[in-house]
Specification:
two-stranded antiparallel sheet, 17 helices, alpha/beta, five-stranded mixed sheet, extended, 7 strands
């Protein structure tokens, strides 16, 4: 490269024209090379800038998608989705979130992340401790050489323990029952232990396998044909007809316990009731017709929870009337006209569901159709905040708090609704929402006069969700008897879950004990009184 600083005017004037021309040519070549290098650097810089912009855009997009997914995830707990939409969403939510998080981590790899604030650190989810009841297999790792480089032996000063969760697929076990035969040759007498009674007489399944079949069907909602395929992977052939017969035998054995559960539920002074449609196959017609599952649960604040389902071929008022019999008390339900006949008998009090009234305003507010609906939601929210504060209180304390705090808000809400109703035109959505609340006002305010009555009927609606999940899996009930059997088994397993029991362990134990259990002590096997039998 030509050193321009070393050239002065005298040197240039003393140079020959040929040397001057050579120098100029060299300088032009060097300038051209430098220009090409600068152009290459500029192109490289532009490429890096495009890559950074693309990466930032992708990072921003993934961050937004992850934030929106989390918002949907928590939004799904509210009324933004109905039960079926929420279930479909939750099936893929975890997968999508993990996928987006993995992409985000890959893009952020090598970048210095900003330190998390104390508030952000608090919101980080903590991994739940693995249950102590799980079988544990220990793996020990120690250094091959515990002699220090100085020649002295090292001493163990502690250990680090980490736990990883593993699974062994379902294992079928064969129980061989060998009953010895003993004979007396002189007396020609044969002695042998009798065969213990079984759920499936002369059948192969134990109570544990029958319970597993029932739980798979009515808790996990796995149809029989899929259970057949799952069992076949273990080399066990269980045709769906066989599985169905096992379930039928199990249902027959559980019938007395179901009757006892229904009697226990009807001993409560406060009940919740609801109904949901279920398709039922109509023999000979080649199609299905609409049947209904009616649910009755002890009050939301009852210390001993229980729920019982009743399968009926229709939605007529006679079904709840027949089930409730001579029961008297407070029944929380929706505005279905079929319940009208229920309250004409045996000193029964109707309690309404404020969530139903709120839902009508919520639909209008989300659609931006009415500012009155938004104000109504704010007033109703104040009542729900009080309910959250007193949820764990005693009945007397809950009633006292409602009288002091909720009654004034309730009176203000009533006066405000009547005032707004006079202002809004007839025939509109907000008019219908206000009319519903005013028409049901006495029933909706029943919770203000009884500490054991809930503000809404969400307790029983939550207990209806297993049916919404199940009918998407098994589509319809094959017959009225099959629907009754499903209602019976789901009553027991859902009540077991309400009392903190694992459904399979509960069903297995009671199926083993029912055949020899005294009928007058059947209440001992109800979910709220059940304890696992000791071997």
């Amino acid at each position: 490269m030509v050193d321009l600083k070393a050239l002065d005017p005298k040197t240039l004037r003393a140079m020959e024209p040929a040397a001057m021309a050579e120098l100029a040519t060299r300088m032009l070549l060097e300038l051209s090379a430098q220009s090409r290098q600068i152009q290459q650097h500029e192109e490289l810089a532009q490429r890096y800038e495009r890559e950074i912009k693309f990466k930032d855009a992708k990072l921003e997009k993934i961050t937004f998608e992850l934030a929106r997914l989390k918002a949907w995830k928590f939004g799904a707990r509210t009324e933004r989705m109905n039960a079926e939409q929420r279930q479909m969403f939750e099936d893929t939510c975890a997968e999508d979130e993990a996928d987006l998080q993995a992409q985000l981590d890959a893009l952020q790899e090598g970048q210095a992340s900003p330190p998390a604030s104390p508030q952000q650190a608090k919101r980080q989810p903590r991994r739940q401790k693995l249950p102590e009841s799980l079988r544990r297999i220990e793996h020990h790792y120690e250094p091959a050489d515990t002699t220090c480089g100085c020649g002295k032996p090292m001493q163990r000063v502690g250990e680090d323990v980490s736990e990883r969760l593993d699974i062994i697929p379902a294992e079928f076990i064969v129980h061989r029952h060998v009953r010895g035969k003993w004979a007396c040759r002189c007396c020609q007498t044969l002695v042998q232990e009798p065969v213990a009674p079984q759920i499936v007489d002369k059948g192969q399944p134990t109570a544990g396998l029958v319970a597993h079949t029932l739980v798979s069907r009515f808790v996990d909602h796995v149809p029989y044909y899929r259970q057949e395929q799952i069992n076949a992977r273990s080399g066990v052939h269980t045709p769906r007809s066989t599985l169905a017969s096992w379930a039928g035998a199990g249902g027959a054995a559980l019938a007395p316990l179901y009757e006892a559960l229904g009697q226990f539920v009807l001993k409560a002074r406060v009940l919740h009731a609801d109904e949901t449609p279920v398709a039922m196959l109509e023999p000979g017609a080649g199609k299905t017709k609409k049947a209904y599952v009616w649910a009755y649960a002890r009050g939301a604040f009852d210390p001993i929870p229980a729920v019982v389902y009743d399968f009926a071929p229709g939605r007529a008022a006679r079904h709840p009337v027949e089930f409730l019999g001579r029961w008297s008390g407070t029944l929380t339900c929706d505005d279905y006209a079929g319940y009208g006949s229920v309250f004409k008998l045996h000193e029964r009090i109707e309690a309404g569901c404020l969530a139903h009234a709120r839902r009508k305003f919520d639909e209008l507010a989300k659609a931006g159709a009415s500012t009155v609906a938004t104000q109504a939601l704010q007033r109703i929210a104040a009542l729900y905040r009080i309910e959250q504060e007193v949820a764990a209180a005693s009945s007397a304390d809950r009633l006292d708090a409602r009288q002091r705090q909720s009654v004034p808000l309730w009176s203000e809400l009533h006066a405000w609704l009547r005032q707004e109703r006079a202002r809004v035109p007839d025939g509109g959505g907000i008019a219908a929402a206000i009319d519903y609340s005013l028409r049901r006002w006495t029933a909706l305010g029943r919770f203000l006069h009884d500490g054991d009555v809930a503000i809404d009927n969400n307790h029983i609606e939550n207990l209806m969700r297993p049916w919404a999940m199940g009918r998407k899996a098994w589509l319809f009930a094959g017959s009225e008897l099959a629907g009754q059997r499903a209602a019976m088994i789901m009553s027991l397993v859902q009540s077991a879950r309400l009392n903190g029991h694992e459904p399979w362990a509960y069903l297995k134990d009671v199926l083993e004990r029912l055949l020899e259990h005294p009928n007058h002590r059947i209440d001992e096997l109800l979910p709220h009184r059940w304890t696992l039998a000791t071997p």
